[in-house]
Amino acid sequence: MTDTPTQLFIGGAWVDAADGATMAVDDPATGEILCHVADAGPKDARLAEEAAVAAQEKWARTAPRARSEILRRAYEIIVERTDELAHLMTAEMGKPLTEARGEVAYAAEFFRWFSEEAVRIDGGHATLPDGRNRMLLSRRPVGPCLLITPWNFPLAMGTRKIGPAIAAGCTMVLKPAPQTPLSSLALAAILKEAGLPDGVLNVVTTSRAGEVCEPLLRGGRIRKLSFTGSTGVGRLLLAQSADAVVRTSMELGGNAPFIVFEDADLDKAVDGAMVAKMRNMGEACTAANRFFVHTSVVEEFGRRLAERMGALVVGPGTRDGVDVGPLIDRNGRGKVEELVADAVERGARVLVGGRTPEGPGCFYPPTVLTGVDSGSRLMDTEIFGPVAAILTFDDEDEVVRRANDTPWGLVGYVFTEGLDRALRVSERLEVGMVGLNTGLVSNPAAPFGGVKQSGLGREGGRVGIDEFLEYQYLAVPVG
C-alpha cells in the first residue's frame, strides 16, 4: 500500500486536489480505512480536461506502432506485477486473491489485444458509382474521452476502456469508482512507466462525480464518453451528453436468465451456474439473476447447486482457502438482504444460506432460493450478490417469453444437449451475448455489450476500437 499513488494524475504529474480534499478508501472485509486519496473537484476536472485537450493533436499524429509498443510494455509490466496488483485489488474491493489474480490476467490481455489492433486501423478506396470521383476513407481518433469505470472489476474495466483509446490515438480523463480508486492509480503509474506521454491519460479520483463529470460532458471539449455502471446513472449521463452531442458507449445493468432444459447435462449446468452466479461474489453485470429450470429436473438441479454453494468458504479475500469475499459495502449487502427477505415472504424456500453472519465486514453467504414467486423484487432487480433464485418452467415458448420479459438484455445462458434447440433459443433471446452450455462469456477478443437498457456499443474484440474512431470521407476527382 505504501507504494501506491494516492494523488490525482494530471498532465503526467501526481498532484493533490486543488482544495486539498481527500476521501477514505475502506477495506470491505474489515470496515477499516486503508488509506486516503485525493478527492477531486470541478477545478481538478477542468485541469485534467485541459491536459487531455492539449495532448490530443500530437497524440493523434503518433505512429500506430509507437502506440502499440506502449500498450505492449504496459501489458508486460502488469503481468510482472500480478501479485502486487492482486493484493491491492483484494484490499480495496474484497475479492479472493485467486479471483484477483485472474482479473489481473484478464486486464492485461486487453492491453495486449489492443496493442495488436493499433496497427490494424484501416480505411478504404473506391470509385463512386457516377465515375466522377474517387472515395478515400480514413479513420481518425474521435478526440478527448471521459472514461467512467465501476468498482466491481477495477483493473479490467480500466484497461478495457484505456486500451482501445490509446490504440486509436485518443486522450483521456479517467474517473474510477470512489470505492476502488487504487487500482486505477496504479494503472496510471504503470502506463507512465511504459512511456505514455504526459496528458494522454489523466485520472481524477472523486466522491463528487456529478460536480466533476457533468461540466465535462456539457462543455464541448470532451468528444467521447465510455461508461460502465448502472442503467439509472447511464440515463443521466446520456442526458448530460446531449447538449454537446458527445459520442457515447455504455455498458449498463443486466438481469441475466439462466435456462436449464430437461435434456441438459446437469453436471455442465451446475458447473456453469457456479461460474455465472459466483464470479466476483455475484457482483457482476453478467451474473445469472433468474434461474429458469425445467420442472422435471428442478429438484435435482437445486439440490446439486445448493450443495456446491454451501461448500464455498466465506472470508477475507487474503486468507488461504477462501472462495467468497465480502460484498463491496454495507449498502450493497443491505440490498441483498432486502431482496432475499422479500422473496422468502412471498413463499421462496431457502436451500442454503440466507442469513447475514455476525462480525465485521460486509459478508453475505452463498444462497440458493427455490420456489421463487415471479413477482419477487429480485426478479426485476440486479441482485449483485451471491444469491441464486430458481423458478420453474414447462414449455420452451414460455421460458423464452419470461426470459425476455425485462428491460435489460446483456447476457443469457442456455443449457441443453439439443443442437436445434440450442441455436433456436439462443437466437430468440433478446440479449447481446449468450453462454451456450457455459457460464463464462467475457473475453478480450469478443465484443462485450448488450441490447435494450443494457447499453450502447461494444467493448473488446475487433469492434472495440471502433468506438474511439471516426470516419472521414475524401472525394477526389477522377482524371
TrEMBL record:
This is NAD-dependent succinate-semialdehyde dehydrogenase. InterPro entries: Ald_DH/histidinol_DH (IPR016161), Ald_DH_C (IPR016163), Ald_DH_CS_GLU (IPR029510), Ald_DH_N (IPR016162), Aldehyde_DH_dom (IPR015590), Aldehyde_DH_Superfamily (IPR050740). Its EC number is 1.2.1.-. The active site is at E251. One of its GO terms (molecular function) is oxidoreductase activity. Keywords: Oxidoreductase. Belongs to the aldehyde dehydrogenase family. Gene3D superfamilies: Aldehyde Dehydrogenase, Chain A, domain 1 (3.40.605.10), Aldehyde Dehydrogenase, Chain A, domain 2 (3.40.309.10). PROSITE patterns: ALDEHYDE_DEHYDR_GLU. Residues 14-472 form the Aldehyde dehydrogenase domain. It comes from Streptomyces neyagawaensis.
